[in-house]
Amino acid sequence: MLSKKMEKALNEQLNAEAYSSYLYLSMSASFSARNLKGFAQWMNVQAKEEFAHAMKFYDYLILRGARVTLQGVAQPPADWAGPAAAFKDTVAHEEKVTAMIDKLADLAVAEKDHASREFLDWFVKEQVEEEAQANEIAQRLNLAGSSTGALLFMDHELGKRGKG
Ligand code: FE
Ligand code: CA
After folding, report:
1. N or C: which end of the chain has fewer CB within 10 A?
2. Which ligand is nearest to the CA of 93?
């Protein structure tokens, strides 16, 4: 059985993953408004992935016989100055999420809840990937600078995500 403390913390992370999904969907909409269809597609796939993360917490809570308590999802920003600004925020956001997952793993260890610790391992690994991919794109955007050609090339490349 999950402790009340763990149940509450896992519900909070479910909410944080839902917010991540909302944040990236908002970035996708911001890119669409600028006709950056590839960046929009990439963020659309990312938003779906974040919702799947939220569902992993949902399913785990149910599996452990705990209560799922859905909280309101905070309103994300509506617009970014461009891809560089959005990916700068993405890197910062993923670093924040990594810190949250680490805190959850610390709690699981403190509570001697090995099932939850093992469940959280997947997220520990996922955050390494999330940070690496956000950093790679942010760095390439820095290299692209004010080159429209480089930006449109990246838009084309990122647009392949989720399309086989
Ligand atoms: Fe996530
Ligand atoms: Ca991922």
Report:
1. C
2. 1
Q: Say if residues 120 and 104 touch (Cβ distance below 8 Å).
A: yes
Give the model's pLDDT for residue 164: 78
- Any idea what the Cα angle at residue 141 is, between residues 138 and 146, rounded to 5°? 150
Question: Ligand 2 centre from 132 Cα, in Å?
Answer: 10
Residues 6+ apart with CB under 8 A from 99: none
What is the pLDDT, as a whole number, of residue 48? 98
Distance 111 CA to ligand 2 centre (A): 28
SS3 track for 91-144: HHHHHHHHHHHHHHHHHHHHCCCHHHHHHHHHHHHHHHHHHHHHHHHHHHHHHH
What separation in Å is there between the alpha carbon of 120 and the centre of ligand 2?
15
Task: Return phi, psi of residue 113, to 5°.
Answer: -95, 85
The pair of structure tokens assigned to 100 is 């949250």
What's the pLDDT at 79? Answer: 94
Does this model's pTM top 0.90? My answer is yes
List the chain residues with pLDDT less than 50.
Answer: none
Q: End-to-end alpha-carbon separation of the chain, Å?
A: 41
CA 149 – ligand 1 centroid, Å: 31
